[in-house]
Design brief:
This protein is mainly β and 57 residues long. The protein has no helices and five strands. It has one domain: Rubrerythrin, domain 2. This is Lysine biosynthesis protein LysW.
């Protein structure tokens, strides 16, 4: 049985692969948001942080 979690952006059901790991980035099939695996057991997703440029500051 494949696991699933709810997208925090659009509430769609996002399938989770059996070998998924915490910290892995997954794309929501409905809204295309980048999501991060917050936990594997139970499966939980959060919005992935946006990568920002440092520009040497």
């Amino acid at each position: 049985m494949e696991a699933a979690a709810e997208c925090p952006e659009c509430a769609a059901v996002v399938p989770i692969e059996a070998d998924a790991r915490s910290g892995e980035i997954i794309e929501c099939p409905d809204c295309r948001s980048e999501l991060e695996m917050a936990s594997v057991e139970p499966p939980a997703l959060v919005l992935a942080p946006e990568v920002e440029e440092d520009w040497g500051e």
